[in-house]
């Protein structure tokens, strides 16, 4: 559906209004500005889809700009991961930019602010500055250093840049107003001293710009027309505009900051600081653990770019923050995988089935469809023999009337194969069934066209031939947190809600066609769910991750 055929969201309305008021369409330029201090998560995925989606809709360029102004927390690993995630989601940026590209220009502009008496070097401690800044209901008081001479400020700022001072001894502040209603306008810090190695500029700088100074000016330098960010930055808009006022040239595009609401996801954490905590404290195996809300974690679990883009489109853009049930994301994943994932047979809780009247040495290679959703149907061959594995839950020795799978004395169809009838069982010394004996109807082969093959039975079950089956490690994932909003109560440590049963590792058996399956390939294990090949998989050991079940059957764990 085109933009004109559906109602516009409020962000698109802003853009359309600007175009109507004279902004040339060829001046549209958007950006996605992550800080490289962690891996991107599902919230970032929505922001990526928003900004790059606008680029697609308006045929406008989109910059990928790294807000790399805090070298103490930033690493090249994160830069690489972010680029990988954006590309995997299916988007291409026009220019790869870094706030550090502009360090010299930002510094030069800061010098101009000092010369215009709009910035000064403050030598108070951070505690002293916090006190003199006042409260939302009480005005602040001027710093004792607010009226330093321009010459002294220029000298101190130059020496800060040259590395003559220790961290925390001085900062550069904008001279705005200590009585402003908006606390962010009370002489905000522009630069702080940091003696830290930067992943790009190395040790060239000893001072680094604050986010509010670097962000808007970077937008301006890149000629970004619309700078979209989440609602917590709404109070920052006034400062964004004040900083732009100091440098703006009317012949250029003036960036416009506008805000949208976060769409929080139930049963997840999206704070990069807390995600890092999960990694460092070994609650998960890494940033790409399939239980994590990171894009790399979702990719490893088997979520698809299409599913995530569809999810972002479904939840849309809003002005109010709300909590989206994670089952909606799982629905989008399930819906996409249903279209693209080949069907295969796997048994995850095996019990042996022996077809007593099937010839001992015989084996057949039966035809099985790969995906009924395909426009042009394709098929593969699966081996059949006297001894099979079936799911333990597909057999009951004594079954109730609504149990339509295998029981003694009743018939079921083996998927793509024959109709069988349960005859007897063998048990171990504890009474556990270790072997089921059945007979098959030799004329009932699926697709053979015989009268017996068209006979209706109440159930169909899947299987794998024991002689041909491949052993596989299967990682069954559940939600990482038992509470729908684990970060909602600031009085409770979010880690209290970690689900102790979020990962179950089992040994299963899969059909031999999966021997050559490659990392991240998706499959539907028939009647069980969607799975993908994990990066730990090899020719010697197959490893699959459960992506999502065939239907939403997740039961909430009661709060303790």
UniProtKB/TrEMBL annotation:
Q: What Pfam families would the database entry show?
A: tRNA-synt_1c, tRNA-synt_1c_C, tRNA-synt_1c_C2
Record keywords: Acetylation included? Answer: no
Enzyme type, top EC level? ligase
Which residue range or ranges hold the tRNA synthetases class I (E and Q) anti-codon binding domain? Answer: 460-534
Q: Which residues form the Glutamyl/glutaminyl-tRNA synthetase class Ib anti-codon binding domain?
A: 341-441
Looking at the keywords, is NADP present? no
What GO MF annotations does this protein's record show?
Answer: ligase activity
- Return the SUPFAM superfamilies for the record: Nucleotidylyl transferase, Ribosomal protein L25-like
Q: Which EC number(s) does UniProt give?
A: 6.1.1.18
UniProt-annotated binding residues for L-glutamine = 67, 211
Assembly information from the UniProt record: Monomer.
Q: Which PANTHER family does the entry mention? A: GLUTAMATE--TRNA LIGASE (PTHR43097:SF5), GLUTAMINE-TRNA LIGASE (PTHR43097)
Report the NCBIfam families cross-referenced here. Answer: glnS, PRK14703.1
What does the similarity note say?
A: Belongs to the class-I aminoacyl-tRNA synthetase family.
The name this protein carries in UniProt is Glutamine--tRNA ligase
Identify the gene encoding this protein: glnS
